[in-house]
Amino acid sequence: MLSFSKKLSSAGFSLVEMMTVIAIFFIITAVILANLPDFQNKTSMDLVAQDVALGIRTAQVYSTATRRASSGDFPSYGAYFTSDDPVDKFYLYAGDGSSSHFTGPYEQAFSINGKAYVYGICINNDTNCSSQKSINIFFERPKTEVQFFDGDGNTINGTSNVTIVLSNKARDDRYITIYKNGQIEVSRPQSNP
Fold first, then answer.
1. In this predicted model, what pLDDT tens digit does every residue of 160-182 receive, in sequence order?
2. Residue 3 lies in a domain
3. How far lies 8's CA from each of 5, 12, 60, 142, 174, in Å?
4. Are 57 and 184 spatial neighbours (Cβ–Cβ below 8 Å)?
C-alpha cells in the first residue's frame, strides 16, 4: 500500500524574522517622515526663488522683445524690490528714458509666496545687506546690460551685481544675484546646504 507521510516544511519566514523586517520598515518610515517638513521647506524656498528670478527675467525679456506697455509706447522695463513693507511683493514697471526707477504705476505686481519675504539687498557681494533698502533693476532698451538704481532713482555706480536675499521664519535663505551683463543666478548660502 501507499503510505502518505506528513512532512513539516521549514520553508518561509518565521514570526521573528517577519517582525524584524516590519520593525526595519517602521524605522525607515519614521526617519523619512521626520525629515519631510524640512525637505518641503527647502523645496518651497527653491521654488519661490526661481519664481522671483523668473519675474526679473520677465522684465528683461519685455525690455528686449519690444513689448508694448499699457501707455501704448515701447519702453524699457525694470523690477523694483524693497526690504521695507511690503516685503512679500515686487513690481514689474515700464520706464521711459527720463524715468528709469519705479515711481508707479506698475505693469504687474508679483507676490512672493511660501511665507518668504525679501530679507535684504546686497550690492557687489557685500555681506551687509541691510544698508540698501530698495533697488530698481532696470533693463534699458536696446542695451542688454542691467542698470541698478536706488529707491530714489539715483544710479548705483560701480555695481557689478545685486543680490536679493529671500528668507523665511526658519532663516532658510536663497540668493537671487543679478549681474551687470544680465545673467540671473539663484543659489543657497554656503552655510545652508
1. 899 998 988 888 889 999 999 88
2. no
3. 10, 12, 77, 87, 64
4. yes
Q: Provide the grid cell at 86.
A: 511690503
Rounded Cα gap, residues 155 and 148, in angstroms: 6
Q: Is residue 8 part of a domain?
A: no
Q: Determine if the pTM surpasses 0.70.
A: yes
Q: Looking at the domain assignment, is residue 9 inside a domain?
A: no
The CA distance from 5 to 129, in Å, is 85
Question: Dihedrals φ, ψ of 152, to 5°?
Answer: -95, 0
Residue with cell 519566514: 13
Range of the domain at 145: 16-187
Percent helix, percent strand, percent coil in the chain, to nearest 5: 25, 30, 45
Residue given cell 515711481 in the structure block:
103
Position 70 in a domain: yes
Preceding peptide of 37 cis, ω within 30°: no
**CATH code, domain with 151:** 3.55.40
The label of the residue with cell 516544511 reads: 9
Residue-wise pLDDT tens digits, 73-114: 667 888 888 887 768 888 888 876 555 667 677 888 888 887
Q: Provide the number of structural domains found in the chain.
A: 1
Contact partners, residue 20, CB within 8 Å, separation at least 6: none
Three-state SS for 81? strand
Is cis: bond before 105, omega within 30 of 0?
Answer: yes
